[in-house]
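Lab manual, section 2.4: Encoding a predicted structure.

Procedure: take the sequence of the chain (70 residues), apply the prediction step described in section 2.3, and record the output as structure tokens. A sample record is shown.
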Amino acid sequence: MIFSMANQISKNVFTWSIIVALGGFLFGFDTAVISGVEKHIQELFQLSSFRHGFAISSALIGTVTGALIS
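Recorded output:
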């Protein structure tokens, strides 16, 4: 019984480790994509400084929320 319980705990730790690692990977990937296109977004939509900051921060908030949900 003790070995069964320890085995289950090991499986849970492994599963949560994979989930957390994927969340971190997705957060980093999305942040890199947003950082790469932020100047193009400002030029394409002719955004003021405030609107540019709001658009980029909204995208990053969505990235954080998506990583938390996943």
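Check your result against the sample. The radius of gyration is 19 Å.
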